[in-house]
Amino acid sequence: MSESLLTGKCPCGGRAFRYVLLDVFTDTPFAGNPLAVFPQAAGLEDEEMARIARELNLSETVFIVSHHPSRARLRIFTPGGEIPFAGHPTIGTAWLIRALGWQANDDPLTLEEAVGDIPITFDDDSVGFTTAQPLEVCESSLTRKTASQVLDLPLEAIATAPVRASCGMPFHLIALRDLDALAHARVNTAALETYLAEPAERDLYLYVELPERALRTRLFAPAMGIPEDPATGSAAAPLIGYLATRASSDAVQEWTIHQGVEMGRPSRIRGRVDPAGMAAPSITITGQAVAVGEGTLYL
Q1: For 172-210, what is each residue's pLDDT tens digit?
Q2: Using CA atoms, how far apart are residues 15 and 116, in angstroms rounded to an integer?
């Protein structure tokens, strides 16, 4: 991949902006989580970025508004608006920066996102980031009963009381009894709006614990314009951080999160939690990416 993909002219005389399509948290095209990245987006206004994200209608669209050696500033938009941080845009954008030749493999890279500076590491074909904000866990406004109603599941399918956790983006973490319950979960919109009145509080991350620190997950984020997300690093980070706080061991824990299976877009997220005394665990998310296309958008 080279700088040549960043050229392009609008046939109607307006402005032209090149973008690259990636699949993230996978090394297989048409799996994982799709992402559009605009590598040269400095000339775009806020509303133009929002309109482009709605037009492309992917879970997230990234705009690189500035880049320098070892540092780049991002804006991240969902179809519902701008968000301060997201996992697969972080992984995918870092992967693209290296693929474009902007970043040598051994040089440090920091991505500036609204949540703060995010340090990036490269390991062969994988990209990793450490969360910019510490883990926060609090009681969820959902109970087992209301969670079962929101997900159209029987009460016994909800394994434990939900919690709310964040590493920059908050999610309700809902443990389910088994993979059958996970497969049958559906968002009951009326119940969701009844029990979670604020749209910003409606992001639900469902999970089932499997042997050997593996997890199967699903993410519903209707308020962000994402009915279901195939891979969500910003939710995987607080989930494994929360699970680590429940463990009696203070050893480093490594997790594998499988998401997107029910959507036909299997994804694999790798996570690492260093308890660091459990006061402020260090959480790292790692994944792969693959380029699947490129294009020009005219304004």
Answers
A1: 999 999 999 999 999 999 999 999 999 889 999 999 999
A2: 30
All domains of the chain in start order, with CATH? 3-130+288-298 (3.10.310.10), 136-284 (3.10.310.10)
- Give long-range contacts, CB 8 A cutoff, 24+ apart: 271-276: 271/236, 271/237, 271/240, 273/240, 273/241, 273/244, 275/244, 275/249, 275/250, 275/251
Distance between alpha carbon 89 and the CA centroid of its chain, in Å?
7
Cβ atoms of 165 and 136 within 8 Å: the answer is yes
8 Å CB contact between 92 and 250: no
CA torsion 100-168-179-191 (nearest 10°) is -120
pLDDT at 2: 45
Contact 127, 120 (CB under 8 A): yes
What b/e string do you get for 33-59 counting C-beta neighbours within 10 Å, with b at 16 or more? Answer: bbbbbbbbbeebeeebbbebbeebebb
Query: Which residues are tagged catalytic?
Result: 60
List, in sequence order, the alpha helices (H) in the chain: 46-56, 87-99, 144-150, 179-184, 189-195, 233-246
- Residue 17: pLDDT band (50, 70, 90) is very high
Q: What's the burial of 189, exposed, middle or buried (CB within 10 Å: 0-12/13-18/19+)?
A: exposed
The pTM for the full model equals: 0.92
Is 248 exposed, middle or buried, given 0-12, 13-18 or 19+ CB atoms closer than 10 A? exposed
Predicted pLDDT of residue 5 = 45
